[in-house]
């Protein structure tokens, strides 16, 4: 559904953004902040923005998670130019994979995670670089669909240049940094990186706004875009909401989900609170997303991650 929020006094830009949450649980404060910043970025430029529900993880996606995500975002006042489920794009994913098989770029891999970890090399996103153990096991057009092993892309070294709008230099050689990426897992599900690149291109997404925990994987995704001859969008990675877990910090989702937040706050109260944490509005201001379209500016968004705490009595607070 098209939002009525349009920038006033600005020339409307063509283009499309997307918010693409995984549906492996209820939304949490970090989910809502990421949705708000993605939505405000697009609406402030007069661009479209779609909601893509990334529901390919068969083990972790449970009935009702996708519907709850849509409902939680609507409760916060976010409207979309389209809502799609990634699982409904399987035919597209298969067609692109078949194209790669025809080019001789796909092989079957039965390496366990333990075997890959034993290679001892970390990739930028924290995973382990695949050492190419099974590269000789190429699959052909007659066999790939029934192959029970994971399918990987066999690609060559190719340096890519990627400069994030926030200033991060994400340039590098994805083959050297990550090794050969999985395209389809052994359970038949398509990989996150492969499906994301294919679906972004199919939807005409030319701008990606997301949390900076995903920044290290951008080099890999741009490499996939090159191999598939798909255009590369512009990227902006924003700060995260974190929580203390023992002596470490992690993304804020374990302490509270949106069901508890909805009992504690009105939509405009929570929207204002989340935007205040990252500097978009003053502390204590209540607002709905559409109220902030005209004056949204990335220069106001803080560059540091924000550490929060949650308690039913005090709600969300910035940790001292």
Task: Walk me through what this model shows.
The chain has 9 helices and 12 strands. By secondary structure, the chain is of the alpha/beta class. The chain has a domain at 90-193: Rossmann fold. β1 (16-19), α1 (29-45) and β2 (48-53) form a beta-alpha-beta unit. The longest helix is centred in the first third of the chain and has 17 residues, at 29-45. The two termini are 40 Å apart. The model has no long low-confidence stretch (mean pLDDT 92).
Topology:
Elements (H helix, E strand, L loop, with lengths): L15 E4 L9 H17 L2 E6 L11 H11 L7 E3 L4 H13 L3 E4 L3 H5 L32 E4 L20 H5 L3 E3 L7 H12 L3 E5 L6 H10 L6 E5 L2 E5 L2 E4 L6 H7 L2 H11 L28 E6 L3 E4 L2
Parallel strand pairs: 1-2, 2-3, 7-8, 9-11
Antiparallel strand pairs: 4-5, 5-6, 9-10, 11-12
């Amino acid at each position: 559904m098209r939002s009525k929020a349009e920038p006033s006094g600005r020339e409307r830009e063509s283009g499309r953004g997307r918010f693409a949450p995984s549906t492996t649980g209820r939304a949490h404060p970090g989910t809502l902040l990421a949705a708000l910043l993605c939505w405000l970025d697009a609406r402030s430029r007069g661009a479209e923005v779609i909601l893509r529900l990334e529901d390919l993880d068969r083990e972790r996606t449970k009935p009702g998670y996708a519907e709850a995500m849509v409902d939680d975002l609507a409760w916060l006042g976010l409207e979309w130019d389209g809502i799609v489920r990634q699982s409904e794009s399987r035919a597209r994913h298969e067609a692109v994979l078949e194209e790669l098989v025809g080019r001789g770029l796909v092989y079957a891999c039965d390496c366990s995670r333990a075997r890959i970890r034993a290679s001892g090399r970390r990739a930028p996103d924290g995973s382990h670089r695949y050492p190419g153990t099974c590269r000789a096991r190429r699959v052909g057009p007659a066999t790939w669909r029934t192959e029970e092993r994971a399918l990987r892309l066999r690609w060559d070294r190719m340096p890519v240049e990627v400069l994030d709008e926030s200033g991060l230099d994400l340039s590098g050689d994805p083959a050297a940094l990550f090794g050969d990426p999985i395209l389809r897992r052994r359970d038949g599900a398509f990989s996150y990186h492969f499906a994301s690149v294919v679906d972004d291109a199919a939807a005409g997404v030319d701008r990606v706004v997301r949390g900076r925990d995903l920044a290290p994987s951008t080099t890999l995704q741009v490499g996939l875009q090159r191999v598939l001859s798909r255009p590369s969008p512009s990227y902006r990675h924003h700060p995260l909401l974190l929580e203390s877990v023992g002596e470490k910090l992690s993304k804020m989702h374990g302490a509270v989900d949106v069901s508890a937040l909805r009992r504690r706050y009105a939509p405009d109260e929570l929207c204002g609170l989340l935007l205040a944490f990252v500097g978009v509005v003053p502390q204590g201001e209540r607002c709905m997303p559409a109220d902030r379209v005209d004056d949204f500016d990335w220069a106001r968004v803080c560059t540091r991650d924000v550490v929060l705490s949650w308690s039913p009595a005090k709600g969300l607070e910035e940790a001292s």
